[in-house]
Amino acid sequence: MKKILGYGLGLAVLASVFVTKANAEDPIAPWNQIAEEAVKAAGHPPASAYSMDVPLAYYNLSFTLSKRTGGITPPVQGRIFAYMGLALYESVVGGMPHNRSIASSLHGIGPLPENHGTKYWPLVASAAMAEVMRGLWGDATNVAAQNVADIDSLEQQIADSFNLQGSLARRSIDYGHAVGAAVYQTSRDDGEDRSYLTNFPVDYVPPVCDGCWVPTMPGQRALQPYWKDNMTTFVLTPGDCGMDGPPVFSTDPASDAYEEAYEIYNLRNNITPEQATIAGFWADGPGTINGPGHSLSTTSQILSLVGANLAQAAETYARVGLAVGDGVYAVWWSKYTYNWIRPITYINRYIDPNWTTLLVTPPFPEYTSAHSGQTAAALYTLIDRWGDIGYVDHTHDDDGYAPRTFASLTHSMVETALSRMYAGIHFRSAVFEGIDQGRCVATEAKALPWRK
After folding, report:
1. Which of 9, 41, 82, 108 is the Cys-Cys partner for 321 at CB 3.0 to 4.6 Å?
2. CATH for the 198-446 domain, from 2.30.110.10, 1.20.1600.10, 1.10.606.20, 3.40.50.11030
3. What is the pLDDT of residues 338-354, one digit of tens each?
């Protein structure tokens, strides 16, 4: 049992007021019973006085929602996590004395409610996350009723666990709901509202050239080809962090394009069992937690590892969410600006017509790698905030994969990139320039005015 200590308050008060770490089998913590009088007696503690159990519970739920909700492709999921992190941070920033709202520094985010008066910050965070998630995961999704019911249930469990009555509870819940509702409302006009319904527009016609992407399976359509033109970015200006483009197309065996293709051809033909395991561990395809979900799972695991408090978790989830959201955007800008050919197409045309990939090639252009770009955006953000620490990745414990141990976040990031080469679905330039792209996005998100 871990006590979450405060900021100079007596330990006797803290033991009776602040939250206690959860039973690992419970989706939320069995928080101590806290009365409004006890909170007031503690001197209206800031968000840093409480544990991260509330946001952790909602992100854990979001991973379940990711697996069962139709249309949650990487751009769609990255967008959702950006708004979830923003709602969490903006709801509790009034309890973070050294931080400030970043809403006005983001593109397209309208005015958000301001905090006035005392709040119970874990209850505020719960209400804000529940409200924004009801919109993002409910609305017109194919399992809206089930998703909203699970979100409602979690919010009620958390509220009941606090046993907080009176005006403080009402103010906290009302304020959290107001922030969550405002964030969701501003999401409605970002150009990709209900984008889970529009993943494969039938009117898109891919450009034609020798080095251009073409569908890699019969009947395949391009995934979100208009994202780079329609989606309002959070931090980036369109074209920022877009990278310089893939190699010049050539079939000359001495060219960079041919050498990159032959490298993937040889890797697939001589793949080791460990490389195959790595490819599968990072596949994160349809029906799974997905790529951005894996990045947020890593975030949750790092925050748990370092024992982050609510304030630290709120800033970290927000920074990672915005980096992932704009990281996917930057990748999609590159994909549909350069429209580069996939390995299987190049290799089947110019090297070996019978060659196949280890994993199914996703339905969008090659350059840059979405896994590399959004993962790097997330992990460079975590490195900046918590250091290049090691961890054990338990993301796929329930999916048939053993946990993977990494000496550092950089180690994890590089393995993620290499996994796409082992799978046969990306060239070297796409994965390693994708890492550079993610670092660029993380730098832009870091530059927001987080501190006073």
Report:
1. 82
2. 1.10.606.20
3. 999 999 999 999 999 99
